[in-house]
Design a protein that fits this description.
Layout: H1 10-15, E1 29-35, E2 40-45, E3 49-51, E4 64-69, E5 72-75, E6 78-80, E7 83-86, E8 91-93, E9 96-98, E10 101-107, E11 110-118, H2 119-130, H3 137-157, E12 165-166, H4 182-190, E13 194-198, E14 201-202, E15 207-208, H5 218-222, E16 244-250, H6 251-260, E17 268-273, E18 284-289, E19 292-297, H7 298-305, E20 315-320, E21 323-329, E22 337-338, H8 339-347, H9 352-359, E23 364-367
Parallel strand pairs: 1-12, 15-22
Antiparallel strand pairs: 1-11, 2-4, 2-8, 3-7, 4-5, 5-6, 7-10, 8-9, 10-11, 13-14, 13-23, 16-21, 17-18, 18-19, 20-21
């Protein structure tokens, strides 16, 4: 999860009822939206079986292309509001292999592709999207636990929806089965069913790439105070190559991004940093514009400019003419586990249990129960 995870619907999710840990381990499945906007989707694989919305078998010669048409999705000579595709190995969607079952739904003007599969198989595919399985084993196990916890929380919050998770930084990055490996599988197997719990509920286990020296309190980002997401010191990520960064942007580019996000500030002449919070991140910025001064929260400014562009809200500003230089530390919203910090902690001998206990104080590990 990079913005991290980031999240457009985080506040309602934080307020949703959390999934309860009840009393042998249950084999969970998850539904992941892997595509949502494409008009056409290429499908291939070995031994594929296809059925329509009524569950009737559909004859399709593969490889084939599913197309969004009036009335649903067209595949193999027929149109349906839903197609289900399964394989004894993987189903290839636009070249990527996915385990489990693939569903095709009409969605807005494109096709919604949902991958339903066992949670533990999802995690094996996720590991090398979020970190590297070559990292110290205890860091990889920590990633497996938090990704499992996050997935369970989201599944409960979105119960009844067409999917539980997006496959992007809006939830957790997941690109299917092609980058699975034995180290990722081992980390998932050795933590099978383990989730983080606070007050008998599975937590919303946010995480990010690099905190820049101090993780952030959830309340500073999303306005919801969460006891296990209060922010902690983290010097372990500071040696990471991703800690420090610099970005140059023109004022007109910034204006355009803010305008696209719905802000109408007028012509921007200067940008000033406001106060910082306890983690060292900016709370707000002041924009000197043709209409006067305006204030915007640092979180919303970063969202408007782009999470992948402005890496964190921990930055300073230098301005020369119409060019602004942002110099900062960290990568991501800063809430929860710092992935690069966890990597170094594991290299220094901390267990995954110790790592998780540090970044999520007041939580405990439990296994999912029936």
């Amino acid at each position: 999860m990079k913005i991290n995870r980031l999240l457009l619907f985080v506040v309602p999710l934080l307020l949703a009822a959390a999934v309860m840990v009840s009393a042998a381990y249950r084999p969970e499945t998850v539904r992941v939206a892997v595509l949502r906007t494409q008009d056409e989707v290429r499908i291939d694989g070995e031994g594929l079986l296809v059925s329509d919305e009524d569950g009737d078998a559909v004859s399709v010669d593969f490889p084939s292309v599913a197309r969004r048409v009036a009335g649903g999705v067209h595949l193999g000579g027929g149109t349906s509001r839903k197609f289900t595709v399964s394989s004894p190995s993987v189903v290839r969607i636009n070249g990527r292999g996915y385990r489990g079952v693939i569903e095709l739904h009409p969605f807005d003007k494109g096709i919604l592709v949902v991958n339903e599969l066992p949670l533990e198989e999802y995690l094996v595919g996720l590991i090398n999207c979020e970190i590297s399985s070559l990292w110290p084993a205890e860091a990889v196990k920590a990633q497996a636990v938090i990704a499992r916890s996050y997935a369970i929380y989201q599944k409960d919050s979105r119960r009844g929806a067409l999917y539980h998770l997006e496959s992007s930084v809006m939830d957790q990055v997941y690109n299917g089965a092609d980058i699975e490996d034995s180290r990722a599988a081992r980390a998932v197997r050795e933590t099978a069913g383990e989730v983080l719990v606070h007050a008998s509920s599975v937590i919303q286990a946010f995480y990010h790439a690099n905190c820049g020296g101090h993780t952030e309190a959830a309340g500073n980002v999303w306005g919801a105070d969460i006891p296990y997401l209060q922010g902690v010191e983290c010097d372990y990520c500071l040696a990471s190559p991703s800690t420090r960064w610099e970005l140059r942007l023109g004022l007109r580019k910034i204006e355009s991004q803010l305008r696209s996000a719905g802000y109408q500030f007028g012509s921007i002449r200067e940008i000033r940093c406001g106060k910082t919070n306890g983690s060292g991140r900016l709370q707000s910025l002041t924009l000197v514009t043709s209409k006067g001064e305006a204030r915007i929260s640092a979180v919303n400014f970063r969202k408007s400019v782009g999470y992948a562009v402005l890496k964190s809200t921990n930055f300073s500003i230098r301005q020369k003419g119409d060019e602004v230089t942002f110099t900062g530390v960290g990568n991501g919203h800063g809430v929860g586990l710092c992935q690069w910090g966890a990597k170094q902690r594991a290299a220094d001998g901390f267990s995954y249990r110790e790592i998780l206990g540090y970044y999520y104080p007041g939580t405990r590990l439990e296994r999912l129960k029936n």
